[in-house]
Amino acid sequence: MGRLIVVSNRVNAPTGAGEETVGGLAMALSAALREYSGLWFGWSGQTVPEFTGELHTQTVAGVTTATVDLEDADYDEYYNGYANKTLWPLFHYRSDLTAFDRAYGAGYERVNRRFAETLRPLIQRGDLIWIHDYHLIPIARELRRLGVTNKIGFFLHIPWPAHQLMTTLPGHRQLVEAMFEFDLVGFQTAEYRHAFEEYVLTEAGGDMPTEGHLRAFGRTVQIGAYPIGIDAENFARLRGSPRARRMHDIVGASTIFRQLIVGVDRLDYSKGLEERFLAFERFLADNPDLRRDVLMLQIAPVSREGVEAYQEIRSRLDALSGRINGEYSDIDTSPIRYVNRNYRRDELAGIYSVARVGLVTPLRDGMNLVAKEYVAAQDPADPGVLVLSRFAGAAGQLKEALLVNPNSPEEVADALKHALAMSRGERTRRWEALFDSVQRCDVTAWRDDFVGALKAVGEPAAMAS
Ligand code: ADQ
């Protein structure tokens, strides 16, 4: 085959520093790019007063990246606007936070056109093009307009919403029509794939000529579920690294005589942080005898600070953690430790490894990699317990976790109590099944499945999963 071209809003190629600082997804994509002598294209993260289309290219650690600056208005209308104020909340079932603004829609179309025009000269015959995520749904249509006939695949990292919710989006039909310009569309789970199918069959008058193919708008697209994974073996290995051990010791010493419950999430309303704090408050209220025995550590680096909903959730969490600590602290203990910063991957592995409970309770999540990282970082001889939202895509694979409804403080509080009291035998049994799944469905398997399916599109035996 030709080269692989990966396109995503932000480009996270290796920096030349150690793998401890680079996420699993970036590592897996970089490895594929090296293998296929490919290219990673996207936004540089910089804005300029006026768009020029000038490409910044560089090759680091065998991976070539090409990035382009966006205009200030692009940042407001495309990135902060349509991507983060319209599609993100809507696809996470937060229609109350979804902004519908024509200027955002226009900015989204404009940036996708600009990306396509800038990328076009870099595409060679036979290249496979792999587009990532909700920022870039119309890009295939723009590339087709420019004469690109290469195979183009799309992977959606976030949920696909239920049909009725999708129809609340002005212009929903055009957005779905644009998805039919891809050759392959991948979702995180069968549930999201089915939601897309339902929209196409009932709203767009489409049909399913064969299993795994949808036909509408005069085109046929192959669809499939490709649950993303982590670099499980590497993550498990990181637990033994010097930094992880040091972190393990520091956190362990600061929680002596107490059991640690850990949460690690971008500070985002979809992650259910407020509901999690309230559930922990309920746990403390219901279990006075356990109050001195637990500590909840919530790590939540701020994100998307340009969007009001993110500023609001931040102040609500500050207030809530303050209130709970005010109510339940003693001279030598506080129940919540709330930290807004980033950690290296080896440090995170060390933190996860000390925690008796991994508390992962998003209200909606495409997959959720933190749940998988927590599992991979456990000591096989004495593993902790994963408490996981049933509304995370990961719940479909991680069935041996304690699955909870994150909207119910009682249910989460009960699961915490159950987790903290669980015998080592039961913890080990559950963890073995979880780790087996995390290891088998890792990020390399995900990447190879998707790229393999994209390569095979149009071949007689091509079947989606
Ligand atoms: P996210 O919404 O960002 O990803 P998630 O899958 O949990 O959610 O991945 C977050 C990543 O950021 C994890 O690797 C985690 O370790 C890292 N991280 C979080 N807090 C950190 C901190 N303080 N320091 C360092 N690293 C931190 C989107 C979708 C998900 C989907 C992924 C991948 O929303 O549903 O699983 O893409 O497809």
Describe, in plain words, how this protein is organized in 3D.
The strands form two sheets. Strands 3-4-2-1-5-6-7-9-8 form a nine-stranded mixed sheet, sandwiched between helices. The model has no long low-confidence stretch (mean pLDDT 95). The two termini are 22 Å apart. Helix 2 crosses helix 3 (102-119), helix 3 (102-119) crosses helix 4 (139-145) and helix 10 (273-286) packs across helix 14. The protein is of the alpha/beta class. The protein has two domains: 4-229 and 444-456, Glycogen Phosphorylase B (Rossmann fold), CATH 3.40.50; 232-440, 3-Layer(aba) Sandwich (Rossmann fold), CATH 3.40.50. It has helices at 24-35, 72-91, 102-119, 139-145, 163-166, 172-179, 190-202, 232-238, 242-254, 273-286, 308-328, 345-354, 369-376, 409-421, 424-440, 443-456; strands at residues 4-10, 39-48, 55-60, 63-71, 128-132, 152-155, 184-187, 213-216, 219-225, 259-264, 294-299, 336-339, 357-360, 385-389, 402-404. Helix 11 (308-328) links the parallel strand 11 (294-299) and strand 12. It is built from 16 helices and 15 strands. The longest helix is centred in the last third of the chain and has 21 residues, at 308-328. Adenosine-5'-diphosphate-glucose binds next to helix 13.
